[in-house]
Prior knowledge:
Layout: H1 2-17, H2 37-42, H3 61-71, H4 73-82, H5 85-104, H6 110-160
Helix pairs in contact: 3-5
Amino acid sequence: MLEMENNRDASAAIISASPTSSPPPQLSPRVVLSPCAACKILRRRCGEKCVLAPYFPPTEPAKFTIAHRVFGASNIIKLLQELPQSQRTDAVNSMVYEAGARIRDPVYGCAGAIYHLQRQVSELQAQLAKAQVEIANMELQRSNLLELIYSLDQPNQEQDNMSFESNDLGFLENNCNSTNSPMLWWDPLWT
């Protein structure tokens, strides 16, 4: 041990006494980049070729935290490395969504959300079908009512033996002089 100390002292003396020793190299000014959210959370150095950096920016640490809790960092990295570059963004978004759904609903995850939305769609379709049936019934009742009114009005006109050249209800007259499309007063005005 004493020998090592002597060697260290001797090498330090040689370095400091050496006239040809060069000054320490100048460090180039480094651009300080903040590490991506994944490297920051994992407490590791974020290199230039970090696979996670494009998908987990430093401004969105919660995005990586959610995915990391469910899938783990090594699985996320493996998955991204296996995929082509064009599909990685979609894969990360899917993983984050799946992880968020799994955290909210540990049993069903995304399947629970899909089931809920499908149930909502089927309920809305049933309501739409019911409304369409009600509309059809109302249209049928309206046409039946108009037929009844017309049939009740016809015998009264025949009994009076009055001949009218114009319609009593002037606002329901056919203003169109075309004989191809006569509009009767009981015809619907809208569809």
